[in-house]
Amino acid sequence: MLFYNYSFFTSLIDTYPWISDNIGFLLSIPLVLFAITALVFTLLSSRWTTKPIVIFVLLISSMTSYFMNTYNVVIDDSMIRNTLQTDMKESMDLFSFKQVTYFMFLGLFPALWVYKTPISYSTFKQSLLRKLNQAMFLLILIVVTIFIFSKHYTSFAREHKPLRYSANPVYWMYSVGNYVNKTFNSAPIVVKPIGLDAKVIKTKEALPKLVIMIVGEAVRADHFSLNGYKKETNPKLKNESVINFSNVYSCGTSTAESVPCMFSIYDKGHYSYKKGIRSENVLDVLKHTNAVSLLWRDNNSDSKGVALRIPYEYYKSPVNNTICTDDECRDEGMLVGLDSYVKAQKNKDILIVLHQMGNHGPAYYKRYPKEYKTFTPICETNQLEKCTKEEISNAYDNAILYTDDFLVKTITLLKQHEKTHQTAMLYMSDHGESLGENGIYLHGLPYFMAPDAQKHIAALGWFSPKLKQTLHIDTLDNTKRYTQDHLFHTLLGLFNVKTEVYNEKLDILHAGH
Ligand SMILES: [Zn+2]
After folding, report:
1. How many angstroms does the Cα of residue 259 sit away from the middle of ligand 1?
2. Could you please report the per-residue DSSP string of 43-62?
3. Which of 296, 319, 457, 474 could join 429 in a cystine, given CB atoms 3.0 to 4.6 angstroms apart?
4. What's the CA-to-centroid distance between 446 and ligand 1, angstroms?
5. Distance 451 CA to ligand 1 centre (A)
6. Distance from Cα 360 to the centre of ligand 1, integer Å
């Protein structure tokens, strides 16, 4: 209670300042938090469970406490999903000396102490009785305290919801339950097909289409110089005739949330993880046309379930990726060999999705080769709190420079196929990133409390002159507010797919026509 809740108590004092009106309430909070924690452990305790559970909770809480104190993150169910879907290499990026210290002093040593402490257990009947007594006592304590300070507790529960998110360990334990509930279901997962009627409408003389969709990683809109950022982070893209969408918002604040949502038929208001995995997505609809070749290459963690039913290639390993140095595989490695892939598809339309490593934090400095180290000094540790805002931002912006180059290399590749294909590139980041504003780092805060930096994303498109004509792109309003909900319909529209699940109103490229 005392040692794992620094983050909770500091935000509590921020919200309820230490004035006479608040003092009673503030003093009651540790009591209530203690009673709730004790109640949970009382119910879970028994001869066989007490020690394993307490040891497990101590070990995990040392880490949740580290991440909450260091990055101001919240351990909710989507953060748990994110963590479980993160591979070992990404976890090593986060590893630090401070983290080891937390683990030793708040995890390992207390756990050892618990392990060594002798506990005398009474008979089953006795302990059940004692447990009931104890639970009743704690419950009454909680209810009475809340009743006495009911005015404060009402505001605590209704107006300051985010506060309780940093209560350790009860909130992460609750989140685990929430995650299990949202993820697992006794029934096997049945994927509902959608858009089985999908057909590509095509004139005979039209060239086949070649579209490369790039799913970016953690690139916030306001760090693109195309959006007016003071540092030149798009020196190469600015020379291409790209259409920059300056006002695009993400569906979630993490990869695990945003990536499946952006390809899903559901809009942000209706999307949930459970619904997402139980329904086909836009790639499946394109597959149903039998006229589009699909390929997903991944240099991030994986496709988050989006590419389960289409050809998928893992590029975060030197097995496939030919451009890797010191255990970092580069995004541009995903372009290698695409020429021959395109040629092998004969006259079919093609959609290639490239899922970037992009600006994956906190080790931004690892995300680009040396020659992109343009903005200096940079933060060269994964312990962001040790760096200045300027150093963090410089490393982050250098990683954008590398993406700028990657996108232009993709455009160059598309230009080489202009004689035989109508070509296009779409780029959209999955979510944004906090770079230390108000002490918030990285991403993944619950959407309603996340700052704009985590939601306002970089997005742009490039279209070959031939394709541009057929799309009437000149009348497009690229400053209009769009969201990731538009991607599903925009991709269908781009391939001229006729299907009942297509909604022209959400097709960015046909809006207003
Ligand atoms: Zn991401």
Report:
1. 8
2. HH-STTTHHHHHHHHHHHHH
3. 457
4. 14
5. 16
6. 7
Q: Considering the chain, what percentage of its residues have pLDDT values greater than 90?
A: 70
Per-residue pLDDT at 159 exceeds 80: no
Give exposure, 56-66, as e/b (b: 16+ Cβ within 10 Å).
ebbebbbbbbb
The identity of residue 336, as a single letter, is V
Are the beta carbons of 262 and 487 closer than 8 angstroms? yes
Q: What share of the chain is helix, strand, coil (3-state, %, to 5)?
A: 50, 15, 40
* ∠ Cα 253 492 262 (to 5°): 10
Element (H or E) spanning 215, and its range?
A: strand 209-216
- CA 245 – CA 429 distance, rounded (Å): 11
Is pLDDT above 60 for 512? no
Q: Is 240 exposed, middle or buried (0-12, 13-18, 19+ CB in 10 A)?
A: middle
Across 50-60, average pLDDT: 94
CA separation for the pair 415, 275 (Å, rounded): 38
Q: What is the mean pLDDT of residues 443-458?
A: 94
Inform me whether the pLDDT recorded for 17 exceeds 60: yes
CA 185 to ligand 1 centroid distance, Å: 26
d(CA 403, CA 401): 5
| Span from the CA of 448 to the centroid of ligand 1 (angstroms) | 18
What is the C-alpha to C-alpha distance for residues 100 and 67, in angstroms, rounded to an integer?
A: 12
Contacts of 18 (CB under 8 A, 6+ apart): 26
What is the distance in A from the centroid of ligand 1 to the CA of 174?
A: 24
Distance 455 CA to ligand 1 centre (A): 11
Q: Which residues of 409-426 are buried (b: 16+ CB within 10 A; e: fewer)?
A: ebbebbeebeeebbbbbb
Q: Indicate whether 263 pLDDT > 80.
A: yes
Contact call for residues 422 and 347 (beta carbons, < 8 A): no
CA–CA distance, 470 with 206 (Å, rounded to integer) = 10
Residue 197 DSSP code: T
CA distances 480 to 218, 221, 247, 344, 469, Å, are 21, 14, 6, 38, 21
> 254 with 460: CB under 8 angstroms?
no
- Between CA 104 and CA 301 the distance in angstroms is 29
Mean pLDDT of 456-467: 95
Q: What letter would DSSP give residue 428? A: E
CB–CB of 488/264 below 8 Å? yes
d(CA 192, CA 309): 13
